[in-house]
Amino acid sequence: MTIQITGTGSALPEKIVTNFDLEKLVETSDEWIQKRTGIAERRISAGETVSSLAADACRKALEMAGKRADEVDLILVATCSPELLLPCCACQVQEMIGASCAVAFDLNAACSGFLFALNTAYAYLHTGIYHNALVVGSEVLSKLVDWKDRGTCILFGDGAGAAFVEASAEDIVRDNGRRAGMECMVQGSDGTKGMVLSCAERAGNNAFIPENPPENPYIHMDGQEVYKFATKQVPACIQDALDRAGLAVDDVDWFMLHQANVRIIESVAKRLRADIARFPMNIHKIGNMSSATIPVLLDEWNRKGSIKTGDRLVLSGFGAGLTYGASILVW
Ligand code: UT7
User: Whose CA is nearest to atom 20 of ligand 1?
Assistant: First the structure.
């Protein structure tokens, strides 16, 4: 059996916000942001929504895979910033693209969301419950960001990426002898550190208790704690996934990491003793889009032809929860 990605797509808001624009909002500088994060600009919604961006990304992924929307079995949208609590974003996407036969639901694992959704799709496809899935990461974080907090507002951006995943009964072997498709996955969560990166929803409020609005309804982050967690946990879980698959770092062509900070990615490369050239990055122009970063990066590298048939990829996400994971697949 082969479970592989056969189409990718992405969608970004048109509005570009540069570091110089942020200099006008908070006490910061383009120099500080670039040096500490690698980010120069990000896309910010001027009306685009989590569902509209997700639907655009899905249409592109389906087009690449040569599939019609009514052939989709499952839609999984990873998001922590839906525009509606009900219905879920995946059902909105189903309606928007006309995926009339699909089962659709959301999944929230913050910046690990796309990876966890991909692994969930894998489980459904591997057991034969469904034969294909649209897996999406979509975020409009700009509405959750405190634009007065220089510690967070410089990091985040909006956007969506999607992958169409298909199962086929036969094993597909590439010219280089590698078996195509998903090979191995590792996932982890540490709820004890949940509050180092959090964002409140509505506080308890009903007919029987006084109104109790959250003190801070925006993203709150202890950046250094998240940084320490990421630089330790991400290389460890990538190594764990490689060990489980019986592979070495040199067997991997591309390490596609969640785009949170260039320094985190450089640190992971160093700890794994892997060439940084094998860690694609696009954070400088789109910032941290939580669950959307990995599928947007995947789509960019796929569309420009950088990923060749038979290449081995490690996808690795990490973020609020805390959550982390790594998946290995052959293109
Ligand atoms: O998606 C997953 C979740 N997020 C992450 O992965 C984020 C992980 N953390 C980080 O990327 C980094 O911790 C940050 C980029 C958020 C912050 O970088 P840092 O090197 O850890 O900076 P810091 O928090 O240690 O702050 C250093 C200094 C402080 O000033 P003092 O106390 O040394 O005078 C901050 O107040 O930099 C100051 N600072 C800023 N200065 C200019 C913090 N933010 C800014 C800013 N502009 N935007």
Answer: 36
- Which residue has 């990995």 as its token pair? 294
- Please indicate whether residue 216 is annotated as part of the active site: no
Q: How many A from CA of 197 to the centre of ligand 1?
A: 14
Which atom of ligand 1 lies nearest, measured to the CA of 152?
Answer: 16
Test site for ligand 1: of 18, 36, 324, most ligand atoms within 8 A of the Cβ = 36
Place of tokens 């990491």: 257
* Residue 118 and residue 201 in one domain: no
Helix, strand, coil percentages (3-state) for the chain, rounded to 5, are 40, 25, 35
Residues 6+ apart with CB under 8 A from 4: 165, 166, 168, 172, 180, 181, 182, 329, 330, 331
Q: Is the pLDDT of residue 7 over 80?
A: yes
pLDDT tens, residue by residue, 260-319:
999 999 999 999 999 999 999 999 999 999 999 999 999 999 999 999 999 999 999 999
Closest ligand 1 atom, CA of 224? Answer: 13
Is 192 in the same domain as 294? yes
**How many structural domains compose the chain?**
2
pTM of the model: 0.97
User: Strand, coil or helix: what is 182?
Assistant: strand
**Residue 128 belongs to domain with CATH number:** 3.40.47.10
Q: Do residues 207 and 161 both lie within one domain?
A: no
